[in-house]
Specification:
heterotetramer; A alpha/beta; B alpha/beta; C alpha/beta; D alpha/beta; B: alpha/beta; Aspartate Aminotransferase, domain 2; Nuclear Transport Factor 2, Chain: A; 3-stranded antiparallel β-sheet; 16 helices; C: alpha/beta; 4 helices; 40% helix; globular
């Protein structure tokens, strides 16, 4: 009869919705609503609603595929790390700030860095990184003009709510992206050269997103646009704590993008990969290729709170409790500090032990949390910073194929969350020219192979096929494909 | 021994409970006694998070029950879903009780195992709206509020500085604050569908503020009250004619006001504009399914007709999901407002449901959640 | 190209025993009808799910017909009474939604009433032609 | 647990390979629909492995083509676009089964009744529509699933309801084939309407003389258990396994000891008009024997008029009379049911057709039968009712209550013949009488009927082609009929002593009650509906229930008798096989989805559903596959096989296409 209730945040996109989880005696969880949580006012998107699924696979510690206790796993990890050559450590931002700091300490002991934050996303000059941080969502509600380079309905559904409030407050909303949006006053399919025509000013907000597969050229173009017009720019990101990881890693150098890391692994330059709640197989558009690359590693060590494809193939898995039970802090997309009500710290304890095994000091939660506060005073003081970068040059990638399959990075697909987006979007013109049959399917051919998909007719630009689902024909976020009715 | 139909005035014997509870702590004490004496395995209590937020929690700890209580007009949760599959007692607004009864018709709840102490309800406020109202109308920082009550048609907030500020509810509601829309035109104010119907309406004279008016509605209500008296948790005395008359008068006034609000809030949309209105209202739906999740009437699991045969791939002008839900629930929608509260894109789901449900339920003379008569779709009244 | 007159698409749910038979009888009697009708056969009018009716509208039906055996004649005791109750709900919903009431019609047609069936289809088609395409019809669909 | 991709469609184990066969049905379809174009269109649709045109798909050649194609193209679904499933679905299902597929993997598209025949003037649209209908069928065919029909044992007993001549024949035939028959008759005696007739056309032999021995034969047949003065109250179950409850009304006479001697009748002081047998012309007592040849020849008490004087009890030597006798019930278990509940004579009284009910000397044909009958109330002496004098001038009006848009549109078939017969009988008995028959046209098909008509003419019966306009009364109670002979355009004012209305047959109320009990369909004319007007004239749409005689529509004696035999033959098939195959289409539940809300349980009219431990339990044998419960189910856990939500939705969706597709 006794239930345990955890106040926590949704580990989806970076909005960081408040909610609470009910855990009943048999370990099953259900999600429940706060009515006045400051970020989301008690509301959740369709991904948030499915959180119980996300928590249905808690991880278990493993050494060489065999279930093992935490200490055994830590020791196995330590012995592998001690003898490893070049080590790459990756944390995409899916755990608490405190765990992230602990992971960074280990990196220091090992003489390396944690690849994390914005640097693992697009290849952008480091002076731009602070400007890819988010802005308070309440400010979006008060903007006069909002330009969307994302599809909030598909990618960040809870942002729809903020945009609707903004619209009620009198904002003029333009969708400059890929699809006609119901909430927008104007739907304009613009090329970067036409962005000037948007007539933005300092009361305007540009909303885009940034993730491991963002076209960095386009990110530069948007930063240029913000710089030229004085408009504010807000970037949405996947993972609950990518913002926190980013801010904590701001003074670190020598970081690589995730695709770069994968390239080096493929080439054989990196032989040891140490992951903190980050699964490249889920993250990369091309899962097969990624899994194949990871198999070339000598050491694959994973700290994880849930089972995912990478824990299946890792040499060592150090298991932690589910995210909602953790004691710890997150920073959401707008820079708000949020705290779990859970009190468990097995992840930090494990990393502390690992640190000691590696010959360094151990650490505990309070100490790490104190460190976080120090850091945050420093970075939060930087709010409302002026642009510190100049106009950037970039060479846009040319797509020469007839059709481009564009992957709308969906911040939950990294977590293998079920979604019903088993279709692609294309427009009526294409339906006619491809002689598609209603209720039929399209076949997409890329260099990787071909697959059949259902499709939905939307007002999207000619030649563009959108997907909110990772498709196995995709080679990146934009893939040139041949399309045929079938 | 009390009898079914008795109208009583009562209060908790424990002075602490009596003082803390809004009206003599009767409800808290009755629930605690039920748990203490093993009538139920648990009690649903609202665990206070702050002035505007409380989480329904099921507890088997009598002390925790006794420590709960107090009015929370800004916590509009529906408790019906928390009763599913458990042998519990709970306090309940009329809409909570209606939810439980509708669940019982769908085998979601074993009514015999669920004791509900009903509470009079003039309506609830949404916490977010309340915060905004405090800033704009009361000019009080919501975080400074330590207490709230309703007296003589005015909503009073107390701050930590010991100040009180009162504004008439009419004025607040004219300005768009105050009670949720569906509460304003709700037609059940006294929970006569519960086992006990409790509230402070009709408590006058020296007992005002320190006793609860309680009507014994059925056999379960009698058991609850007898148990609490026997356990020494409460004391009761018969209510006099005057008390009874005042309670009825308050109820009538509230219902009359409700009718007026209904006329204002559910104004007829011209025939030729209606479809466009519904299409527009549902157009921003992000397909989260939360309205279904919180609905206290719906008993479906994860797969159901509204979800299984609805696909984002369909290019429809209105989503199949909403159409199927309207169809499946318009005969038994209780108008509790949960779906509107939860909707992340502010679709007025409850208002839309009422537009379909009101005429349908009126035509069939069916009031869901008020008795065990089954709704038309479940019964398909033949001949 | 010559402008051809718009032909509505009407989906009719027919029960196997009566109304489907009525459509057959209409054919046997060579009662000519507009080519607007598409019949979905179910065993009993009690099988006509309001969900399917809505789906037909959402897909683009200009009208949906619910048909079955005369009351009292149900092959399955009282399936058509149940269909009738469900139909009344549907009718109210369609009206509240703001769809023209002519777009949803109920008719009891026995297997012998071929002429009635044909007349019904002719009447409905004429009514719908007056109204024009359904406002729920998705763009680009016919 | 989470499903990776939510299930939107029924997953079929194999990729559908559909064979499409478009039937031209000679010119029936081919003359209107361009079948080649339809087949070509179908071949462009996904999952269609082959698409061809047949001249006659249902012919041997057509069927072997389908069977061959299943092999050649490795088909796992077959779609035939031809006529109506109501007649041909079983044929093609069998064909597909012979071809090696489950019979339910067959989809039928009706492009004849629903297309070519109703769009004969619009070939272009007919072809377009046929293509669309085929497309809809293909969408459904893709999702078809194999089903198993189940065999149920058959109780080797039959129930025949109604012991008129058709029912007697059916009962005798079934009994002679060696099966037990319960023959239930609501009247105190068997015999039906035929027992009331005087003579029968075209041979003019005495009706009861030929029927009487048959009635005795029925009563003596060891396999027939006769239940007279009894009515079927309830029927439940399904083919092979019907349970019927029969109510035996109280005769207040012990049939086992009563000898039918009639002593009681003589002593009874109460005399009332005899409506049951003599059409109200003669009288009977409160205790009576229905008629001299009644079977069983037993007395019966009419308690509604009996004054409880006890005279009969004293008169009865065998002490058979018991005024305390209570009605009893029998519960029968039978495998098949034959319905021969007969008809009513059209009653012209409520509408006073041709003055009937106003003028004493206007009578119906049946009343005339009784007046002519040697054992009738007048001992066969023809008299007119007003003054009991023999009529000199007799007129017949044909088609009363039949072939009349305001009454009944159908032709009752036998009235021409009985009028001819009665006219002849009158002429034979009273050669100097004048007999007129006023008719629209005389219908006399079948052997010796036309000759019978000729004979009537030869006898001097006068035929006036015309329907009388006005009937009035003369001072001496004669009837004056104003009629125009449309052959000669002469208008006559016939002065007649007796006017006979040749009334037809109408569906009877008691028959309607039985129809509703059994759920047999009703035709537009109010009679019971056969499964097919030509090929299944005595079957109903319900397995194991058959209809014969005038229950199905007006017919004469030989036709009724042959239908009785036909019913027996059709019914005995089940009894002889000892098993029947029930519908494969039933309801099924997905237990993972069912939440046990129980909404479906009261929907089932056959009590096939119940809740057990919070989950749904289905008794398949009781399920008739109507699918009503599947509609009520809010979760979609309950599905009607062969008409699953996905299958129907796919069909609906494929009605529509993109413009220009």
């Amino acid at each position: 009869m006794k239930e345990t209730i955890y106040q926590t945040v949704c580990p989806g996109c970076g909005i960081g919705c408040g909610l609470y989880i009910r855990e009943n005696g048999n370990g099953s969880v259900s999600i429940d609503f706060l009515k006045s949580s400051p970020v989301n006012l008690g509301k959740l998107c369709r991904f948030g609603m499915k959180l119980p699924h996300y928590y249905s696979d808690p991880s278990s510690g493993k050494v060489e595929g065999l279930v093992s206790g935490a200490e055994e796993a830590v020791k196995a990890a330590a012995s592998r790390l001690k003898n490893a050559g070049k080590i790459a450590m990756l944390s995409a931002g899916n755990t608490t700030c405190e765990e992230h700091i602990a992971f960074t300490r280990i990196a220091e002991t090992l003489g390396t860095v944690v690849h994390t934050g914005i640097p693992v996303y697009p290849e952008l000059p480091s002076e731009c990184h602070p400007h890819l941080e988010g802005m308070p969502l309440a400010e979006i509600e008060n903007a006069e003009k909002i330009v969307l380079f994302i599809d909030p309905y598909v990618q960040y559904p809870l942002l729809v709510r903020r945009l609707l409030i903004a619209r009620r407050n009198g904002a003029h909303i333009i969708s400059a992206g890929t699809k006609e949006l119901h909430l927008a006053h104007e739907n304009r399919d613009l090329s970067p050269e036409q962005y000037a025509g948007l007539e933005l000013d300092s009361n305007s907000v540009i909303i885009a997103d940034v993730h491991p597969h963002t076209d960095s050229c386009h990110t530069k173009q948007l930063l240029n646009l913000a710089l030229e017009t004085g408009a504010r720019i807000h970037f949405m990101k996947p993972f609950i704590n990518s913002e926190g990881a980013n801010r904590l890693a701001r003074d670190k150098t020598g970081m690589m993008g995730i695709s770069h890391i994968m390239d080096e692994i493929e080439k054989g330059d990196i032989k040891t990969l140490f992951l903190l709640d980050s699964d490249p197989i889920e993250l990369m558009p091309d899962s097969d290729r990624t899994a194949n690359a990871l198999s070339k590693l000598d050491n694959l060590i994973v700290i994880s709170s849930r089972d995912s494809p990478v824990t299946e193939i890792a040499n060592v898995v150090i298991a932690t409790e589910s995210l909602y039970r953790k004691r710890g802090t997150f920073i959401n997309a707008e820079g708000k500090l949020r705290e779990n009500s859970g009190q468990e710290v097995t992840g930090i304890d494990a990393m502390s032990l690992l640190s000691r095994e590696l010959g360094s000091e151990g650490f505990e939660y309070r100490q790490l949390h104190g460190h976080l506060h120090e850091k945050m005073i420093e970075t939060l003081a930087n709010e409302n910073r002026k642009p510190e970068y100049g106009i950037m040059e970039c060479a846009p990638v040319q797509h020469n194929g007839a059709c481009t399959l564009k992957y709308l990075f969906n911040p939950f697909m990294w977590a293998n969350q079920p979604d019903d987006n088993d279709f692609v979007l294309l427009n009526m013109n294409m339906v006619r020219s491809l002689k598609l049959r209603k209720g039929g399917m399209v076949r997409l051919d890329s260099e990787k192979g071909s697959m059949k998909m259902r499709y939905r007719v939307e007002r999207v630009p000619d030649g563009m096929i959108l997907t909110a689902r990772k498709l196995q024909v995709a080679t990146g976020t934009n893939t040139t494909v041949k399309v045929e009715g079938c | 021994m009390v009898e079914i139909g008795d109208k009583l005035l009562g209060y908790a014997t424990n002075p602490d409970v009596r003082n803390r509870g809004a009206s003599g702590g009767l409800v808290t004490a009755v629930l605690a006694a039920a748990l203490e004496k093993g009538m139920v395995e648990g009690v649903v209590v609202l665990k206070r998070i702050d002035e505007y937020e409380a989480i329904p929690v099921i507890t088997d700890d009598v002390q925790e029950v006794l420590a709960s209580g107090g009015s929370m007009h800004a916590v509009p949760v529906n408790l019906a879903k928390y009763a599913v599959g458990r042998k519990i007692a709970m306090p309940g607004k009329p809409c909570d009780v209606r939810g439980v009864i509708e669940q019982a018709k769908r085998n979601g709840v074993e009514l015999e195992d669920t004791y509900i102490v009903g509470l009079n309800c003039g309506g609830a406020m949404h916490p977010v709206v309340t915060r905004e109202m405090l800033i704009r109308m009361y000019e009080i920082d919501p975080e400074d509020v330590v207490g709230e009550e309703i007296e003589k048609g005015k909503l009073i907030f107390k701050t930590k500085d010991g100040e009180e500020k009162a504004i008439s509810i009419d004025e607040l509601e004219e300005a768009g604050y105050g009670r949720r829309e569906n509460c304003r035109y709700c037609t059940i104010k006294i929970p006569t569908n519960a086992d006990l119907a409790c509230g402070n309406w009709g408590v006058i004279g020296e007992l005002a503020g320190s006793a609860t008016f309680c009507e014994v509605m059925n056999e379960k209500g009698k058991r609850l009250l007898d148990n609490a008296i026997e356990a020494g948790f409460i004391e009761v005395q018969p209510a006099d004619e005057k008390s009874i008359a005042i309670r009825e008068k308050v109820n009538k006034t509230m219902l009359k006001l409700g009718d007026e609000w209904k006329g204002r809030l559910l104004t007829e949309i011209p025939d030729q504009e209606r479809l466009a209105y519904y299409i527009e209202q549902f157009a921003d739906c992000i397909d989260c399914g939360a309205c279904r999740e919180v609905c206290p009437v719906c008993t479906c699991g994860e797969d159901s007709k509204c979800t299984m045969f609805h696909s984002l791939a369909d290019n429809y002008k209105m989503s199949m999901y909403h159409m199927v839900r309207l169809l499946h629930l318009s005969d038994s929608c209780i108008g509790c407002g949960q779906c509107s509260d939860i909707c992340p894109v502010d679709i007025p789901v409850t208002t839309i449901f009422r537009r379909f449900a009101d005429p349908a339920q009126k035509k069939r003379d069916y009031s869901p959640g008020m008795d065990l008569q089954r709704p038309p779709f479940l019964e398909l009244m033949l001949k | 190209m010559a402008e051809t007159e718009w032909e509505p698409k009407i989906v009719a749910f027919c029960c196997n025993w009566c109304s489907y038979g009525g459509a057959d009888t209409a054919g046997m009697g060579r009662f000519q009808q507009p080519s607007s009708l598409r019949i979905i056969r179910v065993m009993c009018s009690g099988r006509i799910d309001p969900m399917h009716v809505f789906n037909a509208f959402l897909e683009g039906a200009d009208a949906v017909l619910v048909t079955g055996c005369h009351l009292g004649d149900c092959h399955y005791v009282n399936g058509n009474y149940k269909a009738q109750v469900r139909y009344q709900f549907l009718e109210e919903m369609v009206r509240e939604l703001g769809l023209e009431p002519e777009r949803l019609q109920l008719n009891w047609i026995s297997a012998s009433e071929g002429e009635k069936f044909a007349n019904f289809i002719r009447d409905v088609t004429a009514q719908i032609k007056q109204l024009g395409p359904s406002p729920l019809k998705p763009e680009g669909v016919n | 647990m989470v499903k990776e991709v939510s299930v939107k469609e029924i997953e079929t184990a194999d990729t559908p390979r559909i064979g499409v066969f478009v039937c031209e049905c000679g010119v029936n379809i081919g003359g209107v629909v361009n079948c080649r174009a339809v087949a070509d269109y179908a071949s462009t649709l996904p999952n269609v492995a082959t698409s061809v045109v047949n001249k006659y798909a249902c012919s041997d050649a057509g069927q072997s083509e389908i069977k061959q194609a299943i092999k050649d193209h490795d088909l796992n679904r077959v779609l035939v676009a031809s006529c109506t499933p109501k007649t041909h679905e079983p044929i093609f299902r069998a064909c597909v089964e012979e071809g090696g597929l489950n019979p339910y993997l067959f989809e039928f598209v009706n492009i004849r009744e629903h297309c070519s025949w109703i769009h004969m003037q619009d070939k272009e649209n007919a072809t377009k529509k046929a293509s669309e209908l085929v497309r809809m069928g293909i969408s459904r065919a893709r999702l078809l699933e194999p089903l198993q029909s189940t065999e149920v044992p058959v109780t080797n007993k039959a129930l025949v309801i109604g012991a008129g001549v058709a029912g007697m024949q059916a009962a005798l035939d079934i009994a002679d084939m060696g099966y037990k028959v319960y023959l239930v008759e609501k009247n105190p005696s068997i015999g039906g309407k035929m027992a009331q007739l005087d003579k029968t056309f075209p041979t003019n032999d005495c009706s009861i003389c030929i029927l009487g021995p048959k009635m005795v034969e029925v009563s003596r047949n060891r396999n027939i258990q006769l239940m007279t003065y009894s009515e079927v109250e309830e029927v439940e179950g399904y083919v092979g396994n019907f349970r019927a409850r029969v109510r035996h009304k109280s005769r207040f006479v012990d049939v086992t000891t009563c000898t039918g001697c009639g002593s009681c009748v003589q002593k009874c002081p109460i005399e009332v008009p005899d409506f049951e047998f003599n059409e109200g012309i003669g009288t009977r007592k409160a205790i009576y024997v229905p008629f001299p040849q009644a079977v069983p020849l037993r007395a019966v008490v009419d308690r509604s008029v009996c004054i409880d004087c006890g005279a009969c009890i004293k008169a009865c030597e065998s002490h058979s009379i018991n005024m305390e006798q209570e009605e009893t019930f029998s519960d029968l278990e039978v495998g098949v049911i034959v319905v021969t509940t007969g008809y009513d004579i059209y009653d012209p009284e409520p509408t006073n057709d041709f003055g009937y009910g106003i003028y004493d000397n206007v009578i119906t044909g049946m009343e005339l039968e009784r007046l002519l009958n040697a054992s009738g109330p007048t001992m066969g002496k023809l008299v007119r009712p007003s003054d009991v004098r023999p009529p000199k001038r007799v007129g017949f009006i044909q088609c009363v209550g039949s072939r009349d848009k305001k009454r009944n549109r159908y032709c009752s078939g036998f009235c021409c013949m009985y009028a001819l017969k009665d006219a002849q009988l009158i002429k034979e008995k009273y050669p100097d009488s004048e007999v007129y028959i006023m008719y629209m046209d005389i219908r006399a098909p079948f052997r010796n009927y036309e000759e019978f008509y000729d004979r009537a003419r030869d006898m001097g019966i006068k035929f006036i082609r015309g329907k009388p306009g006005k009937v009035s009364k003369d001072t001496d109670n004669s009837v004056i009929v104003r009629v125009e002979d449309t052959l000669t355009n002469n208008i006559y004012n016939l002065e007649l002593d007796l006017l006979v209305l040749s009334v037809g047959a109408v569906a009877s109320e008691s028959s309607e009650r039985v129809r509703q009990l059994l759920k047999v369909s009703r035709a537009a004319d109010g009679f019971m509906m056969e499964a097919h007007p030509k090929l299944k004239p005595v079957d109903t749409t319900l397995d194991g229930i058959f209809i014969g005689g005038v229950t199905q529509g007006p017919k004469d004696i030989p036709y009724s008798v042959s239908q009785g035999s036909a019913c027996a033959a059709r019914a005995t098939r089940y009894l002889a096989q000892g098993k029947a195959t029930t519908e494969g289409i039933t309801v099924e539940v997905d237990e993972d989805i069912c939440v046990g809300c129980g909404i479906c349980v009261p929907m089932c009219p056959f009590q096939a559903l119940s809740l057990a431990d919070g989950k749904l339990a289905i008794i398949k044998a009781l399920c008739k596959g109507c699918g009503t419960c599947a509609v009520a189910c809010p979760t979609g856990a309950l599905q009607q096989s062969h008409f699953k939500n996905q299958q129907l939705l796919a069909q609906v969706r494929s009605v529509f296409t993109f413009e220009g597709e």
